[in-house]
Amino acid sequence: MILIIQHAIESLQHGYAQLADGSPAAECSADAAIGSKDALGSYRSLAFQGIDQGQELAQFTRRPEASSGSPGHALWLYELHGVLAGIAHELADAGSILKGWSRQLSASLLDRSAGAVVRSLSRQLLFS
Asked: Could you tell me if 40 and 86 are in contact, meaning their C-beta atoms sit under 8 angstroms apart?
């Protein structure tokens, strides 16, 4: 789970560096960060597979008995997964912002290059 979050952070850093260099390829890095949310969600569902969702809350909120630390451990693990899912959600949101900025950059680059082509063609037509 931590590796998924770490990969998303690295993707965002790479994407922001690409964007700072004027590269519209930052959108690919943004997609990788956005995908981390789904990957972590899948990991979380696998970790809690077999737990009845209706009994989940009651089972985990009970105080662990002195002889068994399992319910407390399960509650801690469940809370940890929730916190990590929140982090992945925030990283996915940052990826969405990066993707939007990358698309704006791509659009402005296309506008500039289209304008340059039109100016070039206009000059060619005027001087022909």
From this structure: no
